[in-house]
Design goal:
Rossmann fold, 2 domains, 12 helices
Amino acid sequence: MLNHKVISILGPTASGKSDLAIKIGKKFNFPIINCDSKLLYRGLDIGTAKPTHADQNLVKHYMIDILNYDDHSNLRWFLDESRKIITELNNNNQIPLLTGGTGQYLWGILDAWDPPQVKPNKKLRQNIYKEIEKFGIKKVVKKYSENYKLNPDLDLENPVRLIRIIELYESGHSSYSKNKLDNYDINSLIIGIKIDREESNKLIKQRIKKMFSMGWIEEVEKLLMSGIDPDSPAMMSIGYREIIDHIYGNSSKDQMEEKIYTSTRRLLRHQDNWFKKSDKRIKWINFENSFEAADIIIQEWLKK
């Protein structure tokens, strides 16, 4: 049986996962594998809180900036690519750090999921996009919920994710596979960052304002001017949809900020369902002293 060794750092948005991973990666010489769907796309930097070039020079990062804006990613593809990287790193006696906010990606690796290979259904995608444009995402979710058991934890108001889930159901599969790979095992230390809800809300608001001060709106304007399709998979990320709406004159700046905050809080609820405090596999550490706590846990784990 293949036995792969990884360390995972998980937690809600704005809990400092990336900063902690970079500090840990630098100290122990651990490369980082991104497990956040938003960071896969080139050109989306500010609104995705993508590690800077300086950070990426400090610690080697994988699965970042590997897709064009109109490329479609899916769970199967992500797992296949990540597993290749993990195997290569382990063969070179390196332990990768997995970090990111996409629960499916993380657990897909850690639990050795074997999702079905389902090709994109172009006609179905076009029809659902038209329905979304005509009726709005909420009504479309409600419509398909009458036919399929849609998991509310899967960020159904993301059109790309909703369409992929429906594609799987239409092909005779569930929204994600519980089948597991044979002869594949992951030896993983899983560290979770625990943060008070009030502190989390404050940090999210600060982070949104910081992104705007860094030129988030200008980033989106530049992307639109370069010819990027506003309905492309890349632009479905939280914040980018809301900023495009603002640029087109459909909302004020204050309304835009509030919508982004609300969408981010909704994402946190999804993440809470993926990263449960009751999960005994996860070693939870406090946000306030995350590096010190993680450092101790990792050193103990490495001695085993």
